Every structure is written in C-alpha cells, then in structure tokens.
C-alpha cells in the first residue's frame, strides 16, 4: 500500500471588526466546513500601532489610515488555519477584495456574502506562504510547524 503524503500548510486569517458581531459564528462554521483546522484562535482589539505594523505593506497608500482606523474599531478574531494548500484555499474562500467584484465572480465567497464595501470587507488572509509565516509569528509568536512530518529532517542514524 502506498501512503501519499500531502503536507499541511498554515495561513493567518482574520475576521475583521465589521464581521465580528453578526457573522463570526457563520464564518467559523464555513471555515470548518471546508476542512480547515483552526489551530490557533484569539480575539483581540488591535492597537493603532499593531494594526499599522500588521498592514505595513500598505503604508503610504491612500486608504492606509482608514484601514488602520477600521481594524482598530472593535475586536478581531485572529486565526491560524491549517490544511493542505491553506494559503490559496483561504484566499479563494474569502473572494476578491471588493465585494462588488466578489458578487459577480464568486457569489459563494465570504466577501460576497458579508462585506459592505472594498474597505469593510469582513476577512483577511495572508497572500503567500512567507507572508503567512511572518504574520503568524507577529500575532502568535513561535507556534511551530503544522505537523511533525512536515518538519522532519533526515538524519544519518
Ligand atoms: P487582506 O490583505 O485584508 O486580506 O485583503 P486583500 O489582500 O484582498 O487586499 P489588499 O490589497 O491587501 O488590501 C488590504 C485591505 O485594505 C483595504 N482596502 N481598501 N479603499 C480601498 O480602495 C481599499 N483597498 C484595500 C481592505 O480592507 C483590504 O482588505
Ligand atoms: Mg492583502
């Protein structure tokens, strides 16, 4: 018998303040329903400083200060999602940044269902593996790799 091994991947997901009151449970259900494991979960209100650092890639863009204000206006849920191909699958599940576009191209996506506009768009997800590692470390510190198998190193013994 052959055992195929598909390595797990981790991504950082955030339920943004606009979605926390009304849609948190539905979003968590949808996440688990797609086969993600929620391996870390913490609810927190971001300070301006943390929100600015979290979105530092967007510093200087016209929407940056609005984005930071929005992210600080109430609690967020920060999640580590673990699954094969988690980074890409979570991005697909979120849908495009702008909910108007999401409604056209992916009406089942979370942003199509829950987002009000391009700024208040309900969820965040890391855009690549490097970004995921960096943001997970920033939010949760050193929580290790998703599976032991994944981090197994070959030795000479
Ligand atoms: P995210 O980083 O939150 O997962 O979203 P994303 O990759 O789909 O979009 P990104 O370009 O990284 O933008 C980050 C967040 O900034 C807000 N935004 N507002 N007013 C605007 O034109 C505008 N553009 C982006 C959104 O909250 C977006 O998710
Ligand atoms: Mg982004």
TrEMBL record:
List the active-site residues: 124 (pros-phosphohistidine intermediate)
Compartmental location? Cell projection, Lamellipodium; Cell projection, Ruffle; Cytoplasm; Nucleus
Residue range from the parent sequence: 444 to 600 of 656
Q: What is this protein called?
A: Nucleoside diphosphate kinase B
Organism from which the protein derives: Gouania willdenowi
Q: Which family does it belong to?
A: Belongs to the NDK family.
Q: Which residues bind ATP?
A: 16, 63, 91, 97, 111, 121
What is the stated purpose of this protein?
Major role in the synthesis of nucleoside triphosphates other than ATP.
């Amino acid at each position: 018998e052959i055992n195929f091994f598909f390595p797990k991947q981790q991504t950082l997901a955030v339920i943004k303040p606009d979605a926390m009151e009304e849609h948190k449970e539905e979003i968590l259900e949808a996440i688990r329903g797609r086969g993600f494991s929620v391996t870390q979960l913490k609810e927190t209100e971001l300070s301006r400083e943390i929100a600015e650092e979290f979105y530092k890639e967007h510093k200087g863009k016209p929407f940056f200060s609005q984005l930071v204000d929005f992210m600080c206006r109430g609690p967020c849920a920060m999640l580590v999602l673990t699954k094969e191909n988690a980074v890409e699958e979570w991005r697909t599940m979120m849908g495009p940044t702008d909910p108007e576009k999401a409604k056209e191209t992916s009406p089942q996506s979370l942003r199509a269902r829950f987002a009000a506009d391009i700024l208040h768009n309900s969820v965040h997800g890391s855009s690549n593996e490097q970004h995921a590692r960096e943001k997970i470390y920033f939010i949760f510190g050193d929580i290790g790799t998703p599976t032991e198998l994944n981090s197994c190193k070959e030795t000479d013994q």
